[in-house]
Amino acid sequence: MRRAIVAVTAALAVVLAGTPAQAAPAPGAPGIGDSYFPDYGNGGYDVSHYDIRVRYYPGSDVLTGTTTILARATEDLSSFNLDFVLNVTSIKVNGWTATYARQGDHEVVVTAPRPITRNQYLTIVVQYEGVPSEVVAAGYTAWTKTADGALAIGQPEIAWWWYPSNDHPRDKATFDISVLVPDGVEVLSNGVMPRAPRAEIPGWTRWSWRSARPMATYLAFMAIGQYEIVQDVAPNGQQVINAYSENLGEFAESARASVQRTSEVVDWEQGVFGPYPFEAQGGVVVAPQTIGFALENQTRSTYAAEFFRRGSDPYVVVHENAHQWFGDSVAVDTWQNIWLNEGFASYAEWLWSEETGEGTADELFEFYYNLYPATSSFWTVKPGDPGPPNIFHPAVYDRGAMAVHQIRLAIGDNAFFALLKAWTAARKDSVGNIAQFQALAEAISGRDLDAVFTTWLYTPSKPTLGLAGAASARSAAAGARAGVTAEPKSYQKINAVHQDLAAAKGR
């Protein structure tokens, strides 16, 4: 018996010696892996849902809140990071009190009271408070205090100032957003209102919004203040909510004449890009001299009043709603791929111009190509790799749209419009990059598109027009010789939209 026990023990020792030791839990990465913004997002977990409940005091700009994050660990964790800048008062993980510490200007390192194992479900509850407009991170303050409230709107950073998150488009989630404000103050956000605003405590009203489709963190927004809210039903049966600041003044009517066309624009864009990917539609026009730009917040794009200073402007409505497909439903895998957002939203304006008889895409291409001389620094920015300081450079918009047109010319209209719908269908609710888009374009068209993509997206100089481009140039020149203007009627407004967007987003 003693010999048998010794033999078994020896055999077990041999087996155990060949078994690798289990790795100890380790801290999650402080970034998700974006080469442009290495510390944006976080590693080690994947979020499925945010439940954001905040109370806002318009007079003092004080925000208090509790955000519940539902997530799943993707590795064994001893700690993990959240992107957030306000003052944290407590954090619980699965009901246990966690410790936390600041790291850098927007990271909160959370040390779990118990080790977290891979695939474990996490309920992370963060309580916090602060004055968002007084907090600077990444060199500026994204939160905007207004005369009658506030705006939580920005790109690529805004979440940090009002809710803790895994702040990168790679980690999409669904959202419930609940905001308590003084009576008489309106709150606009994403998705649908699951219930009407209701009194909750004396003098205060709670507004609730729900987004049932996955959303990138920067696309979640709040507009708090005095707004006229107009509700309607779209041709596809969806709820349409448009809202207009009561302080629009001279911009009021031209803003309404533009944004009230949202459901018409979305209906047309469905024919180009495929079925609308979300559960609601609409737009918000904010007061003059607040944000100064437009942004494609999911289901409810937001516009600065100044976009309507020249009169009605359907092109900015077309641009921002095109982002519902290119940028929102299909988000960027990394911020280097911003052309997949801005190039296609800009080209949607060209297609709208064709649709409404205000100028063909050929004419618009020719005008933009000739607008910038070869010596212009415009051509040195590569839309496919613009660099972090230039993700909103005019070249990403204008040369980006020219690149889309060259792809269209290279593969023909049938393949091109099939490509747009195939891309938005294949990557709905997800992310994508330029290499994947090129691969799909080549699969659909049966053509090698390396030369087109390299020339128009990655070459830091003015491209020489190929045969298709030369044919377009000859057509425009022939029109000019015949006494027809080479400048499409839509150019001035389209160019104004691009310049305003790029200037504002470039800060």
Automatic annotation (TrEMBL):
Residues of the Peptidase M1 membrane alanine aminopeptidase domain: 275-456
GO molecular function: alanyl aminopeptidase activity; metallopeptidase activity; zinc ion binding
Signal sequence annotation: 1-23
Domain of life: Bacteria
Domain Aminopeptidase N-like N-terminal as annotated: residue spans: 48-219
EC number in record: 3.4.11.2
Necessary cofactors: Zn(2+)
InterPro entries in alphabetical order: Aminopeptidase_N-like_N, Aminopeptidase_N-like_N_sf, Peptidase_M1, Peptidase_M1_aminopeptidases, Peptidase_M1_dom, Peptidase_M4/M1_CTD_sf
Reaction(s) catalysed (UniProt annotation): Release of an N-terminal amino acid, Xaa-|-Yaa- from a peptide, amide or arylamide. Xaa is preferably Ala, but may be most amino acids including Pro (slow action). When a terminal hydrophobic residue is followed by a prolyl residue, the two may be released as an intact Xaa-Pro dipeptide
Keywords, comma-separated and alphabetical: Hydrolase, Metal-binding, Metalloprotease, Protease, Signal, Zinc
Any GO BP annotation: proteolysis
Pfam families per UniProt: Peptidase_M1 (PF01433), Peptidase_M1_N (PF17900)
Keyword Transmembrane: no
Protein family: Belongs to the peptidase M1 family.
The name this protein goes by in its record: Aminopeptidase N
Species the sequence originates in: Virgisporangium aurantiacum
